[in-house]
Amino acid sequence: MNSIRLFLARLSFRTGVMVLVACAVCYAVSFAQFLLPISVALKGTLWVVFFGLAKTFQYTGLTIIGAEGVRRLRRRFRRA
Fold first, then answer.
1. What is the spatial distance between Cα 76 and Cα 6, in angstroms, rounded to a whole number?
2. Interior angle at CA 12, CA 62 and CA 31, nearest 5
3. Domain interval for residue 59
4. CA separation for the pair 56, 23 (Å, rounded)
5. Cα separation, 80 vs 73, whole angstroms
6. Considering its fold, how many domains does the chain have in total?
7. Sign of CA dihedral 15, 19, 20, 24
8. DSSP assignments along 16-58, one per residue
9. Distance from C-alpha of 61 to C-alpha of 18, rounded to nearest angstrom
C-alpha cells in the first residue's frame, strides 16, 4: 500500500489534475445515466460502476496532487 502511495506521489501535478477531471466525468455519467430509457436494474448497476470509478479517481488524484497541490489549486481559485 505504501509503495503505491509513493508511486502516485511521484507523478506530476498535471497528471493529478487530469485524473480529477476523469473523476468529474464519472460523477456526471453516474447521475446522467438515470435519464436513459433503460431498466432500473441496469441503471443501478451503471450508477455503482461509475460512482465507484469516480471515487477511485478522486482519491487517486488527490494522492497524486498531494498537500502542496491542494494549496496551489486554492491559490489559483482565489486569484480567479
1. 26
2. 40
3. 2-79
4. 8
5. 11
6. 1
7. positive
8. HHHHHHHHHHHHHHHHHGGGSSS-HHHHHHHHHHHHHHHHHHH
9. 8
For the entire predicted model, the pTM comes to 0.75
Helix 13-32 to helix 40-79 angle (10° resolution) is 140
Cα distance between residue 60 and residue 70, in whole Å: 13
Distance CA 47, CA 16 (A): 24
Q: What is the pLDDT of residues 22-46, one digit of tens each?
A: 999 999 999 998 898 999 999 999 9
59: which 3 cell numbers?
Answer: 482519491
CB 20 within 8 A of CB 54: no
User: Burial, 71: exposed, middle or buried (Cβ in 10 Å; 0-12, 13-18, 19+)?
Assistant: exposed
31 grid coordinates: 447521475
